[in-house]
Amino acid sequence: MAGEVKIRGLLIVLVIILLTLLAVAYSLWEPPCRRPISYRIGEVDERFGLSREEFAEYVKAAADLWGRALSRPLFREDPQGVLEIRLVYDYRQEATDRLKKLNIHLDRSQGSYQALRERYEQMRMEWEGKKAALQVDLETHNRRVQDFNARAEAWKREGRGDRSALERLLAEKRELDAQQETLKNRQEEVRTLAETLSSLAVVVNEIASAHNLALVDYKETGRTLGKEFCEGLYEKDKGRRTITIYQFDDTDRLIRVLAHELGHALGLDHSDQEGAVMYRVIGSGGPVLAPDDIRLLKKLCGD
């Protein structure tokens, strides 16, 4: 009897503890979208050509897209904000900038893949041809230099008396120096072409990975391209929340990428509607929410 009373007492205590924990958890839990998510501007790499103030304006424009859909703010800027938003320059934006300077149109749609792929293959063949020809000419030049050095040393050993031989050596030295300068310029041309080819591979593989198309394999890049490529990334790890933007073509694209990652920060999954801001492949349209974006948002926020 006493044992049953003790067990009942323990059960009552456990129930009280459980109810208390549930009450505390409920008091701490908030429905999504109840309060704006605070964010702060982190690193802004100057190589993008944007000031912190300009970048902050584009972040606000992206955040306002979501707020207008519910007629209330869902994000607010705060120097101590829980969400850090930053602009990091790496090989992705470097590739974009280099191709823009060459007036290579960057349409990241699936339809542009074949044209860019063909441009890549043409450029690869050009690079391979120039590289092979340069290698042959470098080897020929080096043999001539070795032969010249041997004859110059022989002239020195023989007493330096043959004036006509000296004049021939000096003329050949000038010719070899001019040839060396030409070879240096060709080496720079091949190096620049390799960098451009690498940049084109970055963009081709970005499109390929987004649309499940064949990647190009370019050994000169020294890295695996395509699957690693992303314009922006939202991360939540050990209580730290960040949005990192790595690449954009223009300001409309920047706002669209920011809006996509801010959507993930709200808790939105990808949309199945092609062209939506939250579609898994960020499209090339302007920064405007699609009907499915708004549907997902209202479902998440309970509106």
Can you offer a commentary on this structure?
By secondary structure, the protein is an alpha/beta fold. The chain folds into three domains: 1-28; 43-89 and 246-301, Collagenase (Catalytic Domain) (3-Layer(aba) Sandwich); 106-221. The chain contains seven helices and five strands, in the order H-E-H-E-E-H-H-H-E-E-H-H. It has helices at residues 2-28, 52-70, 91-101, 113-157, 163-210, 251-266, 291-301; strands at 37-44, 75-77, 83-87, 232-237, 240-245. The protein has a five-stranded mixed sheet, with helices on one face. Helix 2 links the parallel strand 1 and strand 2. Helix 2 crosses helix 6 (251-266) and helix 3 (91-101) crosses helix 5 (163-210). The longest helix has 48 residues, at 163-210. It is elongated and about 120 Å long. The relative contact order is 0.13.
Please write out the topology.
Blueprint: H1 2-28, E1 37-44, H2 52-70, E2 75-77, E3 83-87, H3 91-101, H4 113-157, H5 163-210, E4 232-237, E5 240-245, H6 251-266, H7 291-301
Parallel strand pairs: 1-2, 1-3, 3-5
Antiparallel strand pairs: 4-5
